[in-house]
Batch of 2 targets.
Target 1
Amino acid sequence: MIHFSLQKKLHASEGILTLDVSCEIREGDFISLYGPSGAGKTSLLRMLAGLMQPDSGFIKMNDEIWFDSEKKIKVNPQQRLVGFVFQDYALFPNMNVEENISYASSKNDSKKNIDELLEITGLSGLRDKKIQTLSGGQQQRVALARAIARKPKLLLLDEPLSAIDNEMRGQLQNTLLTIHAQYKVTSIIVSHNINEIIKLTSKTIHIKNGRLVEYQFPAKIFCNKSEDPSSLKCVFLSSGKTGNDYHISVLAGNQVITINCNEEEAKDLRNGNEIEVSFKGAKVFLRKL
Amino acid sequence: MNKIFSVVAILLFIFPSVSIGQSQKVTVAVAANMQYAFKDLKNAFEKINNIQVDEVVGASGNLTRQITQGAPFDVFISADTKYPENLFQNHFAAEAPKVYTRGVLVLWTTKPGLIPGANLQFLLSGKIKSIAIANPKIAPYGTAAQAVLQKFNLLDKIKSKLVYGESISQTSQFIASQNADVGFTAKAIVLSNEMKNKGTWIELNHDDYPPILQAAVLLKYGIENNSSAAGKFYEFLFSAVAKDIYKKYGYLN
Amino acid sequence: MIETAPIWLTLKLAFLTTIILLFLSIPLAWWLSRTKSIFKTIAQVMVSLPLVLPPTVIGFYLLLAFSPANSFGKFLEQYFDIRLAFSFGGLLIGSVIYSLPFMVHPVLSGLSSLPPSLEEASYSLGKTKRQTLFKVLLPNIKPPLLTGIVLAFAHTIGEFGVVLMIGGNIPGRTNLASIAVYDEVEALNYYNANIYAVILVAISVIILFLLYFSNRKLQEVKIL
């Protein structure tokens, strides 16, 4: 279990932001960290990793104290056994895939470990490649494999998939799930993507202006809060007419849906407007893919 | 009115030598070892004539090179005869160089407690680690020093201790700063106001080294651009007043 | 004909100076790139000073420092029987000071341009600062390192003012090629001077060629 309470004055462009977050995370959980830009998410992650020093507070990982401002304890990042996946991947350009991943391991670690990691991340065929020759998705997988090579106690992922296209993103999310299931490492991922959060994580730390707003199941945070349960919040894209049928196209999540509707209601809508579509009394058909 | 004023002002600015009622000027290139005696020469000359003297001090070789490249010097006072001869051969001098004095070599040290012995054997001692001489390739006092060492059969034995100054000035500076334990320099230097009371020196026998004949030459530049002032100064170098000054600084006449 | 000793001596000085500078500059540049100490600015000024100072000034102060009449020189002579003036060792010290900024600046520039996440990743993977410097940072600034090495080497070859002041022009010890050219010109031996000069130019051109050519090859390994 990781238990922390951290305070730090951060210098943002709008002024000073006081970060103050306390939380307890169960061992083996996969947690998300969510909030608007500049809320302090990356800083929080860096403090947990030991890359940034908090002004006050403590971090307890099981029986180890990683940081305690009162007792003046400060464990450096090298000794914390934390895996960190950076937003810019931070792969070492002077090494190939295998060298990047085995960088952390000592001579005692077996080659088997490395092979297993390459296998799980689908990189076995690329082990000799220089990282500059890899695609974004491949680089991300190397970063991931490298971060867990030492079987860390805590895995921190700072918006790892934000630069990846949607299709690859889905695959990488699956890889993350596989890794988490296999290695059972406590993980925290920073993400803006609600689908991703719901798909990967069991609990969400919601931060705003440096403070913890809620620590809750993602479904409860992001669910539809309107009074009418059978409605859909989406973004209006365009409208059109086929014969006598008037329809609109909307963007719900990352899917575009075309819905028949009343011309009157839609006539003032403009591209980009956020709208709520309610289904009352219509027949709904479901089909498993 | 303003336009005319600015034009005249600019012209006066660009052509300062168009002096109205100002005294004349002579530019003299002076070999390093003569720089102290030269101050007296300059003062004496300026008193007698209403001519300003500007000096450029340097190593003889350096000055010679500058002259061959068109440096605007009127007269060249060298520390030897080789460089003035060279200038004359290459048509940079108005007439053949004339010897104005003879240089005197001394052995000098500023190290406390060190006294140079006249037989020079002390140079062999382990306490003497560096002996400064001017580079014989380019400075006549260096050639003289080498000759003295050869005469005393010391040259080969102390060769590894020799330190070469690029000019007699640098050689003297090595000695004055104690970076060299002892060294050979010009008598004029140890008699100068700056170095008078520093350390101890002995004068070497004039017969132990070839005479350091110092020649001066009136330069073509001087004749062509400044003949009156240049000529006057050149003649002055051989006058009785000048000879007294040379004597004062230990030169031989 | 000319003696070749000055050429070898010059190359030897340049080579040794470069090696010493490598050992000095890497930790110094590393510290400068990461520190927030108040001494940082002072250190930067001191490192850049030889760029701005005339070499004769450097030589002049070194001569003063080396003189047995002054405390430092006296200390060296009394306790170690060392005289730095007119020695190859003294020239080495002078060269290291004179060429210091030429090594430090490129290396510092290289280290500063690496993304900080690179070394943070290394720390998070359990490597110490020193391991990170040698396994991650330095291998990724090969072009600036090479630039520093070549600049320091070439700059030392051209050293004149410092050598003139503290060298003493001793055959086999301190008579460098740059002084040899000067002396030949002084002695009006323009032919010999030309030979030295041509050799020095040729060496410099070869070095520069090597620099630019190697840089092109190294550019192929670019940082993400």
Target 2
Amino acid sequence: MTSKSPAGAGIAAPTVRRRLRGDRRVWIALGVLAAIVLTAVFAPLLAPYDPRAQLDIAHLQSQPPSLAHPLGTDTFSRDVLSRLIYGTRVSLAVALVAVSISITFGTLLGAVAGYVGGAIDAVLMRFVDAAFSIPTLLLLIVVIALWGDISVVSLTLLIAGVGWFTVSRLVRAETLAVRDADYVVAARALGVPGWRILGWHVLPNAIGPAIVSATLAVGNVILLEAGLSYLGIGVRPPTPSWGNIIEEGATRVSDVWWLTLFPGLAILVTVFACNALGDALRDALDPRQLLPAHDDAPFA
Amino acid sequence: MTAPLLEIENLRTWFYTDSGVARSVDGVSLHVDHGETLGVVGESGCGKSVTALSILRLIRAPGRIEAGSAIRFEGKDLLTLAERDIQHVRGNRIAMVFQEPMTALNPVFTVGDQIAEVARIHAGMSRRDAWEKAVEMLRLVGIPAPEQRAHEYPHQLSGGMRQRVVIAMALVMNPALVIADEPTTALDVTIQAQILELLADLTKRFGTSILLITHDLGVVAENCARVIVMYAGQVVEEATTAELFSHPHHPYTEGLLGAMPRVGGNAERLATIPGTVPSPTAWPDGCRFRERCMYAWERCAKEHPPLYQIGAGHVSRCHLAVEPERRSQPHLPVAAQQGVTAA
Amino acid sequence: MTLLSVRDLTKHFPIKRGVFGQVSGQVRAVDGVSFDIAAGETLALVGESGCGKSTTGRVVLRLIEPTSGSVQFDGNDVFALGAGDLRRLRRKMQIVFQDPFSSLNPRMSIGAIVREGLTIHKLAEGAAADARVRELLEEVGLRPEYASRYPHEFSGGQRQRVGIARALSVEPTFIVCDEPVSALDVSVQAQVVNLLQDLQRDRGLAYLFIAHDLSVVEHIANRVAVMYLGHIVELAAVNDLYGTPIMPYTQALLSAVPAPDPGVKRERILLAGDVPSPANPPSGCVFHPRCQHPARDAACAAIVPPLEEKAPGHWAACIKQPPTAASWEAQKAAGGTNSPEFFLPRAALHRSVDSTSAHQSLPA
């Protein structure tokens, strides 16, 4: 049976999957991210040294890259390459967990606010509005400063706690649009209960922007964690993270340039890959068509 | 006999997509004479809109007008013109009226500005003169209190008013040809009547030709002297309106006429055309209508029918022209035979 | 046997302005609509955009809460039901939508879409449900194998059929068809209209058929109601409405329909201007500013015409078309200067069309 589409001229509009498959950015980004994830997973196998081992404080302090230590050593004579590899675990874990929590929470909240509307919506959105007015970084700095010695787990939860505002707004907006769609009215006409409409009809169609937001958020959180660690209030040494490796070399960038350059490159590449993937996802989910917008008839 | 105003010869507009090459317009030839209204009728997927866009070279990648196509207007081949020259034609010598007035008008400019812009660009008028002209055009298309209305924005006007504004924009430079692509489909039927009346009146006054694209045979019957029926990217029948309605030749035209419910008609069931339009990425061999045709026979599968001459000014792309006795042997179309059909 | 009874149905939408959303006006989408539908009958509701026909359909099903009025369906007062009873009643009254591209959830397969009703109302489960879904798809003219496909793989006409199958899944007795064929090509329209007629015959369904296309309506309806700015202005059996339309608006509407017959030269009744906004309807008779009835006068702007029976089974809301309960004295008191007289312009007639003659003959 021939398939027709709203794209006009009777051609099937490419599905989201199709568009993603054809987009080169997606493959490159996925490849990069896969490499990074694998590095994190197989860190023990890949790292030549124990990242916390101070190998020879007398002779191997702050050594530039060499054959034995391809990325050099830091002020505590720890191998930078190993620290970088293990740091991948920390940076990635913080980002992935924080984003998962905040996206899930933000999506559910946004969907409920958008679908139910009324007082619940008003209260939630005023709260989000207020939260938006506070700069995230400043808030985090203040809270961590008051907290004192923060564990990685707590840091992750904290980041998650301030990261859900944007996605809740996005999902709420999408939910408002979907709520009035004919197929939702049809579900109500069938007698489908509200919770089921929310779960089966509204959410699956409203999470598009949330997915894009999540992908971009991973990159943002990596940057955030790096920034906090650089300031000394994120992940504390000796646990390695990309940010705190940079922090160690922060005061003498020209001398111990390898402490800044390599983690910096790692962050750059990862964030870039996340953004590329996010952009590709946004384009794929965009309902714009490939053919001229003009249909042959009112509806195909 | 004077040369036609517009002559399209073997137009082929193909789209190079991931799903394959969509031959949306696949060898269309037609002509529009001075001062006449030509109707182009067809359903979705037939290529009529793409044809219209092709005339003004408004086709963008992945679409492309193939070599071997020619569109002659006022003696020049539009397809060979430089970009600057074709811009001189657009809005000036050939104007277009689209289906959706809300998207054809820019929401951030007043309607007066939008009409005036056309005059400024093409006639080089000063701001004041162009504005005067815009008000005059609004009066011409029957908008009451045009001096005030010219200051309004599109969203402040009703659908019918907006379409009048679009028509005003189209007619500002007194073009020789107006391409109207489903100009009234989005409007209520009483407004539709007003707009069609307006178009007919203005074209009579200024001698403008209209290429009226529509899916509504009723609109064609009342407004067009000649009609072209399109199917699957090609012209399948061309005739005067009276001839087409009284003696349709192509089975698709017959099907369309039978499928139309009409006020005053008393059919118990509407005649339908089983099956659907094939995909433009894979036009079938032979006659493209054969799977849905109740007269098709072996020849139709093997040989793609050319446009046969049926009578004066009446052509039809159907082998029944050379084997008319087959018309007395109708059978269930293949599309209906494949068990359960579905539109 | 009357299945549906609607009385004085009203729906006003508040217009909110300002920071705190103060109500600054009302959009009077539906303004006192009454009609009955018998079992197995099709009542068509026609009118142009903004007349309130779609809103009427949805309020009748209580998909939108009414402002006032009552709807009796199958002996139940629809607006008084609690949530549970309403859900049970929903099985009996369903809806088919206009836009085939937004009426199906793009993330659900069409089999899942048709199946949902069965699941919700516990009509079938598991393999029995699958079998039922296949039966329904066949009944609407789709191949059962398509159940696993997604809406974007289908054409407009096919999607419309899926929507119909979904409505049928819960075994309704009444379906609101909200412009079900307006978005389809002519040949596809014909297929779907035929399908709807067949289903009505086979299942004894009643339809409230909402449309703006008068030619399709004449084909499928038993009775027709014409709406304008939230009011029903005329209600009659289909032959009567199309043969002798009483209301000037109906006359104009009919004359505006392009006839696919070049031989017919019909004088068109052209209405001046546009439809007024339902937020600010004219006083008295809502149609009076555009009316071309020769007896139109100041009384029309003052008196709201009641829907009256002008001929057996033929109702109209016009104080100038006799017979009318608005007495001549009352009209004069309201500023009337012209007495009621029956007016039926020739242009409105579609019966006894003779394509060889330029004129049309009045019915005997």
